[in-house]
Amino acid sequence: MKPSPPGVECRGLTVQFLDxxxxxxxxxxxxLTLSVDGGDIVALLGKSGCGKSTLLRSIAGLQKLxxxxxxxxxxxxxxxxxxxxxxxxxxxxxxxRTALENVCLPLELDPAITRLSSREQAMKLLRxxxxxxxxxxxxxxxxxxxxxxRVSLARALVTQPQLLLLDEPFAAxxxxxxxxxxxxxxxxxxxxxxxxxxxxxxxxxxVFLSRRIAIMHQGKIAVWIENPxxxxxxxxxxxxxxxxxxxxxxxxxxxxxxxD
Length: 260
Fold this sequence. Notes:
This protein has 260 residues and is α/β, with parallel strands linked by helices. It is built from eight helices and nine strands. Helix 3 packs across helix 4. The radius of gyration is 19 Å and the shape is globular.
C-alpha cells in the first residue's frame, strides 16, 4: 500500500533579497502562510517578481529563509527531502551523459539500487513521458527542446516522489507539446497519488492542471480560487464552456490583484 501523499505547510515565511544599488533589502516573500493538503494540485499565478518561484524554491529547501518554517508531511525539509522532486524551468541536463544516464542519475545515489534496476526504472519513465525509444543513447545537445524537457521530467519522476514541485517547465515549448505534457503529468499524478505545486504564467495551464489556484502579489498569497472542473481532465475539456468560464474568472482575479 502506497503511503499517503504529504501536505505542505508554510508559516511566517519571509525571504529578503539585497538591492545592490540601494544596498537595502526587500522582502520577496513577506510573512507568507500556505497550506496544501496531501494529494492536492496547486498552481501559483501572479505577475513577474511577485515571489512565485522563490516560494517554490523555499518549499524545496533551495532558498535560504530569513524567517518562518516549511513542513512537508509534518517533517522538516531535510527530513522530507528524499520524498520530493523539483523540475526547473530549464532542463539542466548533464551534457556529457546520455538521456538515459541523466534519468538514472538520482537512482545512482541510492546504493541499494543496482545499475540494471536503475536503467529499467529510467526506461520505464522515459516511456511514460513518451520519449522516443531509441534516442535514449543520445546526448542533450542532440535532443530537441521538447525531448530535453521529457528527459528532465522523467528524471524528476524516477525516484517516485510524493511531492512534485515544478517551476514553469513547459514555458518554452510550443502549445501542442505543452498540452500533451500537461495531460501526461496529470494522469501520472493521479496514478501515483502525488501532491503537486507548480508555477506558471499560463492561465489555461493553471486551470487545466490545478484543483486550487493561488494568486500571489508582493510576496503574499492574495487570493485562493477553487477549481471545480471535473476529473479526469482530457484535451476535450479545453473547448468547453465551463473551461472558458473558469479561465475568465481567473483572468479577472489576476487583473484585479495586479491593479492593487
